[in-house]
Each structure stands twice: as C-alpha cells, then as structure tokens.
Amino acid sequence: MKKLLLLVLSLTLLCGCSTKKIVSTDKAPAAIGPYSQAVIVGDTVYCSGQIAIDPATNEFIGGDIVAQTKQVFSNIKGLLEAAGSSLNKVVKVNVFLADINDFTTVNEIYATYFEEGSYPARSAMEVANLPKGALIEIEVTAIK
Length: 144
Fold this sequence. Notes:
Layout: H1 2-15, E1 20-23, E2 38-41, E3 44-47, E4 53-54, E5 59-60, H2 65-82, E6 90-97, H3 103-111, E7 121-126, E8 136-143
Parallel strand pairs: 6-7
Antiparallel strand pairs: 1-2, 2-3, 3-8, 4-5, 6-8
Helix pairs in contact: 2-3
C-alpha cells in the first residue's frame, strides 16, 4: 500500500498536477471579492464566473442581455488568453441567467463564439440573483 501511495504521489508531482498557478490579468475585470480571476492546475484552466464588467474601468456596463453577453465573452476571451488558452479550448461552460427566457438570445450569441461541431459541454440555469444585478454570468473550464 505504501508503494502504491508513493507511486501515485510521484506521478502527480511529475505531471505538475499538484501545482496551482493563479491567473491575474487586466484583460478581464479585477476580482470583486476574495477569489482569483482564474486558476491553472496542470493543463486545466478554471475561470471564475464573469459578469458584464468593463475591465478598463471595472464598472458594470448594464444594458440588455445582448450587450451583457458580449461583454462577458470578451472578458472570458481575455482571461483565457492570459492563461495561455482560448475559447477553442473550452471544455465546460456554466451559464447563469437572471431570466431563463433570455436563453434563446444568449444561445444565438453563444454559438458565434465556438466552432460548430466542437461545442463545449454546457449547463444553463436561472438563478435568483447575480452580482451587481447582472442578467448573465458565465464560468468556463478550459485546457491549455
């Protein structure tokens, strides 16, 4: 049992899976709480949820679901690039909507950011409230 544990530990250290790298960039909004913009473990990038905040001003842009969704994807793109990844390498998306009736509009915009035929896995759900009164928040997981 000790040999197996040592082998697993050694393999984990060799693949770099035990190290955690914090991503911080001005290409996405600064964290507005005690969390990181993104974290890299091994070859996986875990991005915090993004709402429609302009990274240049760190101000919530407001507006309708179209404007907010486009800003969110701009933030995600900048964050992934800072982490050495891209939208093409996203494997999982969680979409949080203040109103599930916005799903069709969001879905149309969403489809323009990913290659047809290699869409990431996705969940979409309505939530009671989002930070700053946002209409949408999206978090992604990607590979490097």
